[in-house]
Write a structure and sequence with these properties.
This protein has 418 residues and is α/β, with parallel strands linked by helices. The chain has two domains: 166 residues, Aspartate Aminotransferase, domain 1 (Alpha-Beta Complex), CATH 3.90.1150.10; 236 residues, Type I PLP-dependent aspartate aminotransferase-like (Major domain) (Aspartate Aminotransferase, domain 2, 3-Layer(aba) Sandwich), CATH 3.40.640. Helix content is 38%, strand content 15%. The chain has a seven-stranded mixed sheet, sandwiched between helices. Strands 1-2-3-13 form a four-stranded mixed sheet. Helix 2 packs antiparallel against helix 10, helix 11 runs parallel beside helix 13 and helix 12 packs across helix 13.
């Protein structure tokens, strides 16, 4: 086996040891070293440009995590950053009252997204998913929620239940993607009490294969929501401005009542949105208090307006689908060469390589060896989260990536077949 030298991540590790004396656990959430491969991945990054990252030890990577999704164009995208800097320097961005860019962005979303009629602007995906549930509950005067997918860190949906009383999530019931019968059973039991069905319209479950909707699945969910008078919420934090400008609802032609947006719409700047039908959204005007000091800050509005302008002007989504499609074909051809149990799932803009279980229970080892080989070669993927294609990935970058994937698969094949 051709062994690639382990990365020097000494400075990252030193900073992590220091961080543990300053921050609980050193690093929180999905950026913890344990969410990658301990001892192999950097912990602190220094800078990025385009689709490339450099860590604090000087190691360079072609990046496919894209900040967990917000980087749709590339790191340090000059047009976007310059627009925000002009706003900050010439006009300011944090005031007691709202700036007019709120209206401009809301009008833009109404043109692009099938469900968008009225919009509320927030900062994070968790803010927006939680606001959507509050709106649905106020609109319907019901409590229960049916959920499918990851919807953030707030009490009603977070996977880790530490510190959260059971009563905060006891009315939230989970169903699995593409399992319409499971949702039907839940709604037969709780339908008349259900305020919302919230789901990712494209299946990207944690640590598992990605799924496109089975024929009739999304249509069936829409019919069930109509039958019981529940608000259908699409969590399009990852999919809108990636699968289509109007999101998965445009691609799959099923329109929800509310849509949650974030990530790629502002190329890394903090902004999220709940948008949807007038009658449902108006509950927020009369029955709810949704407010934050920073929600009206215009840096996110300006970044989103400029990012959307570039996405439209340069046909970015088509570009990502085309080159991502070519990469996925190469990856599938590579997987077919090696009997290592690798599986490719997803679509051109966002995809995942996983490993099937076997009788010897070596799937975790095969997975970790594969991703270790990639990070050592300078390709930033992660075993636990799907990859993204950005606009600044070039054909040369993707050819190099395919070559590295081939070498990593060959390594795993030799190691587990000797």
């Amino acid at each position: 086996m051709k062994e690639v030298k382990k990365l020097n991540i000494t400075k990252s590790q030193e900073l992590f040891e220091e961080a543990k004396t300053l921050v609980p656990g050193g690093v929180l959430g999905a950026r913890k070293p344990g969410d990658f491969i301990m001892g192999e991945y950097p912990i602190f990054l220094e800078y990025g440009k385009g689709c490339r990252l450099t860590d604090v030890d000087g190691n360079k990577y072609i990046d496919f995590l894209c900040g967990y999704g917000p980087i749709i164009l590339g790191y340090r995208e000059e047009e976007v950053d310059d627009a925000v800097i002009r706003q900050i320097k010439d006009k300011g961005f944090c005031f007691s009252l709202t700036q007019r860019y709120q209206n401009e962005l809301a009008k833009k979303l109404t043109k692009l997204i099938p469900s968008a009629e009225l919009s509320i602007f927030l900062k994070t995906g968790s803010d927006a998913t939680t606001a959507s549930i509050r709106i649905a509950r106020a609109y319907t005067n019901r409590i229960k929620v049916m959920r499918c997918g990851y919807h953030g860190w707030h009490d009603w949906c977070v996977e880790m239940k530490g510190g959260i009383p059971e009563k905060f999530y006891e009315d939230v019931h989970e169903f699995h993607y593409n399992n319409l019968a499971q949702l039907e059973d839940l709604m037969a039991k709780y339908g008349n009490q259900t305020a919302a069905i919230i789901m990712t319209p494209f299946g990207h479950p944690l640590h598992q294969k990605m799924e496109v909707p089975a024929p009739g699945f999304l249509e069936g969910v829409r019919e069930i929501a109509n039958k019981y008078g529940a608000v259908l919420v699409f969590d399009e934090v990852r999919t809108c401005f990636r699968l289509r400008m109007g999101g998965a609802q445009e691609l799959y032609k099923v329109t929800p009542d509310l849509t949650v947006l974030g990530k790629g719409m502002a190329n890394g700047y903090a902004i999220s949105v709940v948008t949807g039908k007038v009658d449902v959204m108006m509950a927020a005007a009369s029955k709810l208090f949704i407010s934050s000091t920073f929600f009206p800050n215009s840096d996110g509005y300006i970044a989103a307006l400029k990012t959307i302008e570039i996405l439209e002007r340069d046909n970015v989504i088509d570009n990502i689908w085309e080159k991502g499609g070519r990469l996925l074909k190469k990856i599938q051809d590579i997987i077919n060469k090696y009997d290592v149990g690798a599986e490719l799932s997803g679509v051109a803009p966002m995809f995942l390589i996983t490993f099937k279980k076997d009788e010897a229970n070596t799937q975790k080892g095969r997975r970790d060896d594969f991703y270790t080989q990639l990070i050592r070669r300078g390709f930033f993927f992660t075993p636990h989260h799907h990859a993204y294609i950005s606009y600044r990935h070039t054909e040369k970058d993707l050819d190099l990536t395919a070559k590295a994937i081939d070498e990593a698969m060959a390594y795993v094949n030799e190691k587990y077949h000797t």
